[in-house]
């Protein structure tokens, strides 16, 4: 069984600063993340595209596939489930996802690391 270690919550920005259906990059505890605000909620994943290795997912196209909130890599167009980080186009490919919440109008992220 895989156990997830959670670090502390880090304030990233005001919720009002996140435009709906657009990504933004942020540095949290030395890790580049991509943060998204959609009609389905807030999502945080690594900004690094696991296919190309480039830090570009925050610039991806936000959408949905079968009711699943997604982001498509701007480089090779692989689509990732924002809830789980799983690539919907390439089996076995995933991007790390992180916990995200809004408290008192502030967006906070907590990095997740697999143990």
Q: Fraction of residues in helices?
A: under 10%
Order of helices and strands: EEEEEEEEEEE
The gross shape turns out to be globular
Kindly report the spatial arrangement of strands forming the biggest sheet: 2-10-9-5-4-3
Count of discrete alpha- or pi-helical segments spanning 4 or more residues: 0
What composes the largest sheet? Answer: 6 strands, antiparallel
Unreliable sequence segments = none
Query: What's the end-to-end separation, in Å?
Result: 10 Å
Rg, nearest Å: 13 Å
Q: What's the average pLDDT? A: 93
- Give the percentage of residues in beta strands: over 45%
Count of strand segments = 11
Derived from helix and strand composition plus strand pairing, the structural class reads mainly beta
Describe the structure.
- The protein is an all-beta fold and 115 residues long.
- Helices cover 0% and strands 49% of the residues.
- It has no helices and eleven strands.
- It has strands at 4-6, 10-14, 23-28, 31-38, 41-46, 61-65, 68-72, 79-81, 97-103, 106-110, 112-114.
- The strands form three sheets. The protein has a six-stranded antiparallel beta sheet with strand order 2-10-9-5-4-3, with no helix packed on it.
- A hairpin with a 2-residue loop joins β3 (23-28) and β4 (31-38).
- It is globular, with a radius of gyration of 13 Å.
- The termini are close together.
Can you lay out the helices and strands and say which pair or pack?
Layout: E1 4-6, E2 10-14, E3 23-28, E4 31-38, E5 41-46, E6 61-65, E7 68-72, E8 79-81, E9 97-103, E10 106-110, E11 112-114
Antiparallel strand pairs: 1-11, 2-10, 3-4, 4-5, 5-9, 6-7, 7-8, 9-10
């Amino acid at each position: 069984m895989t156990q997830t270690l959670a670090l502390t919550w880090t304030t990233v920005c005001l919720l009002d600063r996140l435009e709906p259906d657009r990504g933004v990059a942020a540095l949290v505890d030395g890790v580049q993340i991509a943060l998204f605000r959609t009609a389905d909620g807030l999502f945080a994943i690594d900004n690094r595209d696991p296919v190309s290795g480039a830090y570009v997912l925050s610039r991806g196209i936000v959408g949905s596939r079968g009711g699943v909130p997604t982001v498509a890599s701007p480089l090779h167009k692989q689509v990732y489930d924002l809830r789980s980080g799983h690539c919907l186009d390439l089996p076995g490919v995933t991007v790390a996802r992180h916990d995200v919440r809004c408290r008192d109008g502030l967006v906070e992220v907590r990095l997740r690391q697999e143990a």
